[in-house]
Amino acid sequence: MRIRISSALWKEISHSWCFIISDDSLSPPYKYPTPSQFAALLHFFFFFFTMKLVALALFLAAVAAADGFRVDLIHRDSPRSPLYDPSSTAFDRVRAAAERSALRPSRVARAGLAASGDSTIEAPVLPDTAEYLMEVELGTPKFKVVAIVDTGSDLIWTNCKPCTQCYEQTPPLFDPKDSSTYRDLACDSQPCDALPVSGCSKNSKCEYEYTYGDQSEVVGNLASETFTFTTTGSDAIAIPKITFGCSHESSGTFSNRTGGLVGLAAGQLSLVSQLSSSIDSKFSYCLVPFSQTSATSKLVFGDGSGASGNDVLTTPLTIQESFYYLTLNGISVGNTNISAASPAASGSPNIIIDSGTTLNILSPDVVDKLGKEVKDLVDLPVADDSDLSSFAACFDVKGSRDYKFPVITYNFEGASLKLDPSNSFLEVAEDVVCLAVTTSSDIQIFGNVAQQNLHVQYDLGAKQLSFAQVDCTTF
């Protein structure tokens, strides 16, 4: 920051200082500063004190960035969410989440492949199947956007004016002309080079087109803008020059109650990657159980309250096509260990950890064995309703008061994570409890039910992921 002081003012300040410390001013008859000298001194002290406050604010901001900052992570079914449907029951929401999980594997498996033409790429998230949202403010003055949060996507984007071919968005559109900090990025800029596929307008502005798994798409200009996040405690932190997509066309199955997406994957354009130098390449989250509607999950950028102690489990983290992969060696239930790795690929990354999928999704062979073992261990009637066929095992708990479900251990490389029944079973209908696992031959996913009440930290620099058991309602 540069501060300029006019030569006239500096002369007055200099004369005033010289006057104060001169020998003549310390001996009778005493001399006093002239009104202009006194005003100059006041101006100087005010300037000096203001600069001290600015320096302190900048220092505190730097400390906050170094230690990390937290924002609210809003579940789509929370009363705080614009997607919240008060007419839905808890059972309706669980069943809907299971249906969304079933759509996720095929989208993830196809991610990174060209959808059509030379200017499109396919992104994994299915627009209206988001599980978590966050609020962010763009520009100067600030403009609030409620956006999907996705650990499987890179690009940050929001709908912008003019939006000539856009889905009907209920919240107002961001107008880049109203922001003094908005800048379009050029075709030869580094962020434009980071796009998997990019175009160039007649006036040399970088353009993008993303096509999603259900053929929804967004088209717009790549730009930079100041992003402001409201942190825990209602403080705010403003981060300038965040690269994002200003979409002028959007179509498909997007919810008209949201206005964009924040990517937390490992690609260069994700929010995590753009903040990497100030957050030590770390981010984490703590997801509250679905039943705790009065509490809010947290997303932490940087160390924050980093997981530590003897109870922390650490496993290698591998990044493939911007997804976060772990190595799952097997699953233990009762006295049985079920292998989750094929003999030919033993010790290789084989499961994605994903906050945007509700259920755990495992290969058909693993699901068959796991479902059988759980049924053998649980002393309850099996619920065989055809509507429950997507779950690995379901039980009729009607009339049972002291029923017990087993602890299930996911044996990741170097980390055996024991999941309590609350992380493995869901009540999906009245008197019906199901194992929160479904199957897919496309890909395996470790979903968000299994991650509730865990502090899950991604250390991209060290390429490791850690789990720590915590109460996320008080995190």
TrEMBL record:
One of its GO terms (molecular function) is aspartic-type endopeptidase activity. Pfam families: TAXi_C (PF14541), TAXi_N (PF14543). The keyword Protease applies. The chain crosses the membrane at residues 38-66. PANTHER family: ASPARTIC PROTEINASE CDR1-LIKE (PTHR47967:SF128), OS07G0603500 PROTEIN-RELATED (PTHR47967). One of its GO terms (cellular component) is extracellular region. The lineage of its organism: Eukaryota, Viridiplantae, Streptophyta, Embryophyta, Tracheophyta. Residues 132-468 form the Peptidase A1 domain. Signal peptide: none annotated. This is Peptidase A1 domain-containing protein. Keywords: Aspartyl protease, Glycoprotein, Hydrolase, Membrane, Protease, Signal, Transmembrane, Transmembrane helix. GO terms for biological process: proteolysis. Belongs to the peptidase A1 family.
